């Protein structure tokens, strides 16, 4: 099971609430010492970045092989998560990283720059990695709905790293709200057609819903500010 997984519950799967990962492998993989050490990148954070100011916003554009996904990130929603997400996007951490988990009607999940970086995706461990550090949780103050972008985490407090997910349907919101622990960073303002296309790609099915080769990849993440 993934160390950055979601709780995927009953209503969508017809089974008990489970902590699911994106693939098989170690439930508690050893994190990399830093984003730079694990990916060869320079200029990426080695510890939790500064929170985003409540008055700040940013636009993160994820170019993928299926089209672009434009995300409005709002600091007031989750200062720790938004500051971290924007910093990782700006330093190139997400470039070449795959969406490793595709759950139709629920979410797509990506951001494992440790084990999920193409072309050397570690199929046995993708979904269990992060940037080499974790960040503090933020309270959830707004509903999950179609297009919501939030951080993935385990049931352990303050276990967010670099993985994130995009909600596919409003109906998934009530399921996610049962735990209400996944920090909401913003919403997709353009490119939900791309998200839907990615969600429809082949996956391994329950319980892991691991994306199958070729895995959909973020080719480039860019950040712009007002």
Account of the 3D structure:
- The protein has 226 residues and is α+β, with helices and mostly antiparallel strands.
- The chain has one domain: Cyclophilin (Beta Barrel), CATH 2.40.100.10.
- It is built from five helices and ten strands, in the order βαβαββαββββαβαβ.
- The protein has helices at residues 10-13, 35-39, 79-91, 172-176, 192-199; strands at 7-8, 18-19, 57-64, 67-74, 99-103, 107-110, 148-151, 164-167, 184-190, 218-224.
- The strands form two sheets. Strands 5-6-8-7-9-4-3-10 form an eight-stranded antiparallel beta sheet.
- Strand 3 (57-64) and strand 4 (67-74) form a beta hairpin.
- The radius of gyration is 15 Å and the shape is globular.
- The model is unreliable at 7-35 (pLDDT under 50).
Q: Which labels suit this protein?
A:
226 residues; alpha+beta; Cyclophilin; two-stranded antiparallel ribbon; 5 helices; 10 strands
């Amino acid at each position: 099971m993934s160390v950055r997984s979601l709780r995927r519950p009953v209503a969508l799967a017809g089974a008990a609430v489970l902590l699911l990962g994106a693939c098989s492998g170690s439930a508690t993989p050893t994190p990399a010492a830093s984003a730079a050490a694990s990916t060869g990148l320079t200029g990426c954070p080695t510890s939790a970045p500064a929170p985003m100011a409540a008055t700040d916003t940013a636009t993160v554009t994820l170019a993928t092989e299926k089209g672009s996904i434009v995300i409005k990130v709002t600091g007031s929603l989750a200062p720790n998560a938004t500051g971290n997400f924007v910093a990782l996007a700006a330093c190139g951490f997400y470039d070449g990283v795959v969406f490793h988990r595709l759950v139709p009607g629920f979410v797509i999940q990506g951001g494992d720059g440790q084990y999920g970086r193409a072309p050397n995706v570690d199929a046995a461990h993708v979904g269990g990695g992060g940037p080499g550090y974790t960040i503090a949780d933020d309270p959830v103050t707004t509903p999950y709905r179609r297009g919501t972008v939030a951080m993935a985490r385990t049931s352990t407090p303050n276990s967010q790293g670099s993985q994130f997910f995009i909600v596919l349907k409003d109906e998934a919101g009530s399921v996610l709200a049962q735990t209400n622990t996944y920090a909401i960073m913003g919403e997709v303002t353009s490119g939900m057609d791309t998200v839907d296309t990615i969600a429809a790609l082949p996956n391994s099915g329950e319980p892991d819903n691991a994306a199958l080769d070729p895995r959909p990849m973020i080719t480039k993440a860019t950040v712009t500010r007002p």
